[in-house]
Fold:
Amino acid sequence: MKIKLVVGLGNPGAKYKNTRHNMGFKVLDEIAKRLEVYKWKERDGALYFDCHLDLCRVVFLKPQRFINLSGDVMINFVNFLDIKTENILVVSDDLDLPLGTIKLKEKGSSGGHNGLKNIENQLKTNEYKRIKIGISNNKDIDTKDYVLGKLSPEEKKILKPVIERVADAVLYSIGHPFKDVMNKYNGKIQN
Structure:
């Protein structure tokens, strides 16, 4: 049976719960809610749950070290479960995309995202699928402070349907070619 890995990026702990950097966690939380998963398992520095969808075993993973160490945590699962790179999907935030934009890619650079950089270093390739959620950028605020900043009520309102849509895309990706997923979900902004 094919094993797929969906990794949501974020920082652990209550302090970071509603920050711009935690879009990946928010999407996986939405998926867990839909699949009625109320208890995450713990292993090797991660929270995870797994289930069977569309004839695949799917592992949903939230690394519990800081975001720039996401790959260090993820690689343990990749190696232990012998997951092929083409069966990995990473969900993250993206500073360079307008707030609420969704961008799906089959491969590419980290775009300066430290979590994606660490994943690329661990996988020894940038050819893994990803879904990026635009959080815009504020050049008046230091980048680190901005991504670790709390979402404003307005941002939350804009991002809520976006997070739901990305959850749709992730679940759709389990049983469909990624090109189809990209055609269906790329670039949409929901308001």
Remarks:
- Strands lie at 2-8, 41-43, 46-53, 56-63, 88-94, 102-105, 129-134.
